[in-house]
Every structure is written in C-alpha cells, then in structure tokens.
Amino acid sequence: MKYQIPKGTFDILPYGADEPWKLSALWQYVEQIVRQTAIDYGYREIRTPMYERSELFDRGVGETSDIVMKEMFTFEDKGGRLISLRPEGTSSVMRAFVENNLAQLGPVHKFFYIAPMFRYERPQSGRYRQHHQFGVEALGVAGPAQDAEVIDLLCETYRRLGLQNLTVELNSVGDLESRQSFRDALQAFLRPYFNELSEDSQSRFEKNPLRILDSKDPKDRDILKQAPSILHSLSEKALEHFNELKRLLDSCRIPYRVNDRIVRGLDYYNKTVFEVTANVLGAQNALGGGGRYDGLIATFGGPDLPGVGFGTGIERILQTMIAQSVPLPKEPAPLVYWLPLGDEARRTCFTLATECRHRKIFAEIDLQAKKIQTGLQNATRLNAQICVIVGSEELAKGTAQIKHLESRRQEEIPLDQLIDYFVAINQKQAERI
Ligand code: AMP
Question: What is the pLDDT of residues 263-276, one digit of tens each?
Fold first, then answer.
C-alpha cells in the first residue's frame, strides 16, 4: 500500500523537492533571518503547543470569523475535551501570557514565534492546510509608536530577505465607539442592497457587517464601491492615533498606502490594521498582516494591556523570493570527502573522518563506493572541495591521494599529516568569511 501526504500539506526536503521553495536549506535561511531581525528589535521567542482547547480560539479569533466558523481542525480528545489545532498565533500567545502571569515581570513584553498553523481550507496555490508563520506580539504600549515599530519590523524582515515591490496597506478600524457608529452607517448603506449581496455577506450583515468589506465576491465589491469609509467614523482619539502613526511611518520613510477597505479576517482588531501584499503572488497575494488588539488580553482573563502584532506566511515569503529571483544562499558543502577503497582503507579513513568532524571540519565519508569513478561522482554531486582517496597501495605507503575537485590538482600527502592539513585549510577559509 502506498501512503500519500494529507491534502493541503507538503514535505520540506533537503533535495528532490518538486518546487524550489520546499527545500529545507531555504527554510533554514529564512528562519535564521527572521529570527535575527526580531531579536534585533528586542523581541524574544515564545513557543506554545500546536493545539489548544477550542474555546480559546472561539473567544480569541471570534466566533463569527471564517477561521472559527469554517476552517478549524477540531476534534474531541479521549477525555471528551474539544481540541483545535492552532489556526493562528495570537490567541495562544495571549493564553500563555496570562496563564504564566508574565505581566508581573514588567510593563512591556515583546514576543516572536515561528510556527506551523492549521486551517481547513480548500487547498489551492498559496493556501495550505498546514502553513507556517513568523509572527510578533508587542504588549503593554498603547501609543502609535508601537504600531510603527511592528510595521517597520515586518518591512525590515522583508528587506533583509531581499524582497522588493511590496505594498503596505494601512487602515484604522477605530475603537469600539468608532466601530459602532460605522457599523450603523454601513448597515444603513447596505440595507437596500441586502437581497443582491452574496450569501456570505448576507449572513454577516447582522453579526459582523464590517467583514463584508473583505468580500471577494464581484457583485459585493461593486456594491461596496459607494460604501462609506470607516475613516470618516473614527473617534477623535482613534483619528489622532492613526495620524500620529502615519507621521511616524513618514519620518522613518516607510512607504504605505491608506486603504479604508482593509478590516482583516480576525475579530479582535481595533485601531491600526495593515496588510503587506506582493504583486507576484497572484490571487493569494497577502504576504503578511496584523494590527492592534487592545482589550484582547482582558477577554482572556488577564490585565487590560494593549497589544499589537503581525503574522506573515513563510511559504509565501519563499515563493515571493523565488518569483523575484532573489539571490539565495549556497548550500554548505563538505570540505573533505573521504573515499576509501577496501575494508582496511575504510577503517583508516573512518577514524580520520571522525577526527575531522570532532575538529569541526565538514567531512563526508563514502562507505559504499567500490570504484574511484563512482566515489568521485558522489563527491562532485555534493560539491565537496577535496576528495581523499585511499586504496591498498596508499595504505602500504602510509599516504593518501588528495584531489582538489575544482582545479583537478592532485597531490600525495602522508596520512599522519592530513588532519593538520585540513585544519589549516578550514581555518583559512573561516577567516575569509
Ligand atoms: P492571516 O492570519 O490570515 O492574516 O494570515 C497571515 C499570513 O499567513 C498571510 O498573510 C499569509 O502569508 C499566511 N497564510 C494564511 N493562511 C494561509 C494558508 N492557508 N496557506 C499559506 N499561507 C497562509
């Protein structure tokens, strides 16, 4: 019987992947850069379980959101508890923050995570049932400078990864007061068109009319063209927050575009919301997004601290890097490829290869090859710099044939000098980097 990977998931492989973004070396590279960028901005890593009690997400993400209504992987465990695989990062971070009483340890907390997320979506290009997000949460600061820092961190991460031509779209969904008055205005505008709206939008009309602004349905979009702007309903405080944020972004020369139609899919946002899109991604062009969620921590039973954060998909980052031909790092290759011919030589080479590895030299040994030709091909495939050939003749003399694979230069070196020889090369190359 042949097993198949579950629908909407993919393997990340060291080689042989059907698409280049599924190569593990690229994942390591992206993860290293995003981790370093977050650390440079003062964020610390947080890791939470891959699943939580379902009610956490009902409360956190919002019961009327698409994620909770349609997309959660939910099951009952043997104890009869309803469990969901995490569809997004913020709710779990809030739960961990409150449960571990981290608020006691200082006024401001900045976390980042790199973690898989699960959404039961209809699989299509750029949409998977398991995807990975880099995300941050900054808790404790209510002012717009925190929003600006978070947006800048997202842009700087993309910049360090070499991404270009991205658009930052910015909006404010106001505070509770602004949203209430906008909700009324939007419902009043949409009511005459109710029967023409898509089924989804009709069901959102009472529960969550703001989400209608997100609709991708062409007819809905047509109707929405004349809809009022949420920016006209902002309370004085929310407007001042938005204006100050724009001033800060301008002074840091972070380009953005105000788009009053962005509300974001999760229910917990207030004031600032933003999305970054990449034109090379096609229909699923959202690379990352986030916003402010003051009040969320309190709904989880924690102190009433403000918060702002983002999440960005690693799959889409890699797909954008490849579509934009961003220069990618070379795979590390062995300095030494040991090629013993015969049992006796294998014993000798195995000891020497082990010694190399203990001296932190990238060394590979061919435990299979019977012929020089096959061994050399294997070494070339791995991009090794030097191949060390030891056969019975060399053993008898106490030497090895050293072949520099790029220049094809060959030399004979006594076995007892080899380790020093490689240590010296390794050191010289490390200094050059
Ligand atoms: P969201 O929480 O929906 O705003 O998602 C944040 C980011 O995660 C998006 O901008 C995408 O880059 C990525 N993302 C969300 N859902 C998926 C998915 N099903 N497959 C791949 N990436 C996703």
Answer: 876 667 899 999 99
